[in-house]
Design a protein that fits this description.
Elements: E1 11-14, E2 19-23, E3 29-33, E4 41-45, H1 55-64, E5 72-75, E6 84-86, E7 99-102, E8 107-113, E9 117-123, E10 128-134, H2 136-140, H3 143-153, E11 162-165, E12 175-176, H4 178-181, E13 191-192, E14 207-209, H5 211-221, E15 229-231, H6 246-249, E16 256-262
Parallel strand pairs: 5-8, 6-7, 11-15
Antiparallel strand pairs: 1-2, 2-3, 3-4, 4-16, 7-10, 8-16, 9-10, 9-11, 12-14, 13-14
The structure holds zinc ion (ZN).
Zinc ion is lined by residues 170, 172-173, 235, 237-238.
Length: 264
């Protein structure tokens, strides 16, 4: 909590792409993925007043938003890789993976991020959802492709899928070197001129990477329709009042939680 007076009106801020920051009159805030409303699934993110690194903080935040205590939290041990696992495979500890999917309404899928993009992919006919932690390493390791494959194996037709790309480090603040940009040269719009950067550059050969464009390209290449892909345009580093950012806060800084679930 920030300690500011909550006021007597809820606050909403449009983060683009169907992502809406909502602060209730009691002061509790969340970012709602409104673009997947009506698909049979729900998606939300915590905002800057919650540090979702701890299980207790995550549970408290979920309780504010009326998720039941008995819901099964299905997190993954994020390793910036390409692996996507079914929530039904859980057996004790969180698996090493960067994506998880379910069609069981008792599951709450959880990933944590601060600059990487959370990505929700919903298959409405089968009431199935995948939630992906997509940073540059995971995207180049195929995490988006593997999520689409997992949903297809579970019965999805790719043309039915809806995808929502959450707030992430924007092309304004994401400087990468040629060894990283080389991984994204085929992704239309992903690699941009250094002139797009508003931050102080760290290297002579640095360029701007548009992580959202790279993710969108891989969704499109994987057969998701462009009319069913939405992307937040809020940069985590620029929105310091609303969003956590690894690049702003440093190692060990707070993280946001992104959650996904299917409705009963
Ligand atoms: Zn920025």
């Amino acid at each position: 909590m920030t300690g500011e007076p909550a006021g007597d009106q809820p606050t909403t801020i449009n983060l683009g792409g169907g992502f809406v920051y909502l602060r209730r009159v009691d002061g509790h805030a969340a970012i709602v993925v409104s673009s997947i409303a009506g698909t049979g699934a729900i998606g939300m993110m915590s905002a800057s007043e919650v540090d979702a690194r701890t299980h207790d903080a995550l549970r408290r935040w979920l309780a504010w938003w009326a998720f039941p205590d008995h819901a099964r939290i299905r997190r993954v041990n994020q390793v910036h890789g390409g692996r996507v696992v079914p929530a039904s495979s859980y057996n004790g500890a969180a698996p090493d993976a960067d994506g998880v999917w379910t069609r069981d309404s008792s599951d709450i899928l959880v990933i944590r991020a601060a600059d990487c993009a959370p990505v929700w992919i919903v298959d409405p006919p089968n009431k199935t959802i995948a939630l992906v932690h997509a940073g540059w390493r995971g995207v180049s390791a195929g995490v988006i492709d593997h999520a689409l494959e997992a949903l297809e194996t579970a019965g999805a037709h790719r043309e039915d899928l809806h995808a929502a790309i959450g707030p992430h480090i924007g092309p304004c603040c994401f400087e990468v070197g040629p060894e990283v940009s080389a991984l994204f040269l085929d992704d239309i719009g992903a690699v941009g001129d250094a002139g797009l950067l508003v931050i102080e550059r760290k290297r002579q050969d640095g360029v701007s990477l548009d992580l959202g464009a790279a993710i969108e390209h891989r969704l499109l290449a994987g057969g998701v329709s462009d009319v069913r892909i939405d992307a937040a345009d809020a940069c985590t580093r620029c929105h310091k009042d609303l969003l956590h950012s690894y690049r702003r806060n440093g190692t060990g800084g707070p993280l946001m939680a992104a959650i996904g679930a299917v409705l009963p």
